[in-house]
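User: I'm writing a tutorial on reading structure tokens. Could you give me a worked example: one chain, its sequence, then its tokens, then a sentence or two explaining what the tokens reveal?
Assistant: Sure. Here is the example chain.
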Amino acid sequence: MNGGVVFRAAVVAFADQIEATIARENLRLEDVAWVVPHQANERILRAVSKRVGIPFEKFIVTISQYGNTSAASVSMALGWAAEEGIFHAGDKIVFCSVGAGLTFAGGLLVW
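And here are its predicted structure tokens:
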């Protein structure tokens, strides 16, 4: 794999999923309380944050605790944040996942 190409594709795919979810749910950026992304690479997540205009502080990032846990990373990050009491009733949480920059998905959960 060409790392640079995959990095750029992942950033675009993450951003597209976040933006598509926000548009589909008729939200504004400021309506999003949290983003729970696939935990592949913090550099990717920082680039996504910048690209979509959502502060990185709103991204639930658990890479330093658990590393890249592949398909389990979104649910693990969600569980960690719930245990930490980070979410509040009514919070709009956007999920996004990218697999090797080639497959992707996104969605919304209202806590």
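What the tokens reveal: The mean pLDDT is 91. The radius of gyration is 13 Å.
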